[in-house]
Amino acid sequence: MRKPLSIETGKAAALFVDLQEEHRKDSRYLVEGFDAVIANVVRLQAAARAAGVPLVHSAYVVEVGASSTKPFHPVLADGTSAFSDAADPLTAICPEVAPIGEEALLIKADASSFANDEATRLLAERRVEWLFVAGVWTEACVAATVKDAVELGFRVILVKDACGSGSRAMHETAILNLANRLYGGAVTDTAGARRLLAGETVDVWMVEGAVPMRFNYDNAATLYREL
Question: CATH number, domain at 134?
Answer without folding.
Answer: 3.40.50.850
